[in-house]
User: Fold these one by one.
Assistant:
Number 1:
Amino acid sequence: MSRLISLYLRKLQCSIRNFDRWLQSIGSGQPPLGGIPALAGVSNLPLQTQPLPDYSSIFDGIFWAVPKRRRSIQRNRTRRRAIEKKIVPVTDIIPCSECGHPKRKEYLCR
């Protein structure tokens, strides 16, 4: 059991290091929070005296609107076959006065 936990912690450390590197590559080159000393041991990095860069804009596209639940087949069919979407039959067809072909009232004949 302890081996499984240590394996999980090593993977977690690796993921956090990769995330830190990614943040460094898009930021000012400084580590964003001075590393994670609780998981990585004692940090060799000096404390930052500069203000941290604003990373709020990098997460703008991550939290897009997504549905919480899958739409049921019944709801999909109801939406697709709504009364507003029914095809209305055309009733204003008349024969052309010149050639005799059927055409709509407001349209010109070919």
Number 2:
Amino acid sequence: MRYQVFQAVDAALESQGLKIMILLRLSPIIPYNAINYILGVTSVLLRDFILACFAMLPGTVLYTFIGSSAGSIVESASSGSGNSSLTTVAIVIGVIFGVVGIGATAFYAKKELNSIINTQE
């Protein structure tokens, strides 16, 4: 067969669509628009696609937190308040934990996706 990898992915999406979709949405490596186009030619169920869209929320919350934290750092630095270094340290630690959390999730999501694809082949 010419497209064995694609057929394995299509079969995996048909049998475990929701699980794979959630893992893809949690992984920040592949852009969402590329995932959407690829899934348009597979046999993933619309229900699985819609439910998995909620898995984008952790990344969205992290990006919002990073943007808000950057604004807070700038504001505390420009205000000259006495607690600016404590605020900055707390915000930086929060951002680091958020990025590490998303990175760990992406790592395990990729590992699980690879194992699913390997079992389908």
Number 3:
Amino acid sequence: MGLFGAWIVELLCHWSDDTPSQYLSRAEAKEARKARIRNLTWIIINVAITFALSIVPMVDWSAHAGGFAGGCLLAIIAFSIDLRCWHSCKMLLRLAAFVALIVFIVILLTIFYRDIEPDEKLLNPTNPNDNGGNGGNGGNGGHG
């Protein structure tokens, strides 16, 4: 999902690059605009399908949302330099995205280490039938 978030930001940062100029004819500009709209439609459909499938058990929707948000923030930092606005505007946008990304990571790590308790079955992946080291046979060590 992070790649989809980054792709959306990249498309939006370069949205006005398809205006006719000395390098791009009117027909090429029109085709570039159509390609951007197709790409944006494709991304929106994929994001919608991914979030719709996130309601399935054992699939974490919050991980998808976090990846999307993280990808958007990283792409803002990377692609905002290409925006056509004042230098101070670009630097302020990049700084805000960087601070938001750091806050985002700190909050997620805090939640992960403070609030999440792993399931006991997941702590021993080599033997999923092992119930605390007694082999699943009532604690008599496998003897009758």
Number 4:
Amino acid sequence: MFATRYLSRFRQWMPTMPMVLVDAVNATERANAQATFRVLPRMTKHEIKEHLQKIYDLPVKRVNTMNYLGKRKRVFGQRRVAYYKCRDYKKAIVTFDDSIQELGLGVKLPEIEAEKVNEE
């Protein structure tokens, strides 16, 4: 009985962790590069950091998390009112190490860049 409780704390479910990138900010002179992810509420800061370091090989410096409750909504029908609730979620703000200056978001197409240079 003790072994099952002890081992259940150290389970790993990394490959199935959904992490959705919400926002990213490149590094400036004063602040490091940051990215905001939307993750499952049961994920801890340590699991988020390990996931990004082991699977994506990113140098993570710090992880801050915020828990959000899902919105409660009402839908008015002809005879009654239906209530429902959206899912709870957690936001993780990840600060990267000094080695990452630009996160590389956005796509630069060489044809479009050449046209912009020719127009100027």
